[in-house]
Write a structure and sequence with these properties.
This protein has strands spanning 2-7, 17-27, 32-53, 56-78, 81-88, 91-93. It is mainly β and 94 residues long. The protein has one domain (2-93).
Length: 94
């Protein structure tokens, strides 16, 4: 499954951005399957920030680019009992 979204702001285009989400599910056996998800959002504007370098002070734009992933392993031990193992990732702020 691939899901794309675009967000357009007519009042303030600095907040325009797009996202991408990908998901894959694979059965390993009749009682075990794995689900992998990835989410990407590039250069989302967070706001203006004061930056100071070498006694110079200026206002810069602060953005975030998100790379978020999760992996889940599901195993049915019994019909009424399931085991899940979860792993994940993070984002980058600039």
């Amino acid at each position: 499954m691939i899901n794309r979204r675009r967000f357009v702001f007519t009042e303030n285009p600095k907040f325009n951005h797009g996202t991408l989400r990908v998901q894959a599910i694979q059965s390993l056996s009749s009682t075990t399957h794995i689900k992998i998800r990835y989410y990407y959002a590039a250069n989302q504007f967070l706001g203006s920030n004061d930056e100071q370098k070498d006694a110079l002070r200026r206002v810069t734009s602060e953005t975030v680019t998100s790379h978020i992933w999760t992996t889940r392993l599901f195993h049915d031990v019994r019909p009424d009992l399931s085991f899940q193992l979860l792993g994940g990732g993070d984002a980058e702020v600039r």
